[in-house]
Amino acid sequence: MLVAVDWRIVQGQLPRGHLLRFRPEFAAEVWPAAEDARFASEVGLPYCRGLFRIQPELAVNDPDSPRMAFLPPLPDGASLQVDTEQGRLQRLGSVFGARLYVGLEDGRIWVKDPDGYEDHELIHGDLSSLAYLLYKLDVERPAEANPTPRDWLDAEGFIREDTTRWDPIPFADKDGYWERFLEHWATI
Question: Which residue range forms the structural domain that includes residue 86?
Fold first, then answer.
């Protein structure tokens, strides 16, 4: 795992049910390293006010999770896996309207953004990096009733810096997915 923080503290700072976890048997298939599979099934990804939504076929059914945390199930016979130029990818859910995938060969995280320039864009080195960025977006959001543009810029700068110390991929490209997201973050 790229991000070495005490995930129990993260879990304690989020509302019950707001960490969306993957079924253990699915996690073991996708993440062969026991530590990564355990992270996916015991910690998971923050819901982050609806920014992340999980594919229900892969999720632990937690009654405390918001109903909107789950995408509609895929139709019968539809596959959650896709072959791409980057290799075989497994769909996990969506993040801010883009389809979210994990690379089955290396565990890296990809998106298929309808507004992006690439077919599938690499956005994280692993699942812990994505979890950390979603968590930071949730907790670093300006808390003031009427945040100023400076408040948003300060939060964005802190998130970029803090995330990059663990994983350089999310903010490596100035036209990348997360930079495009931050352009709209204050309006979400």
Answer: 7-187
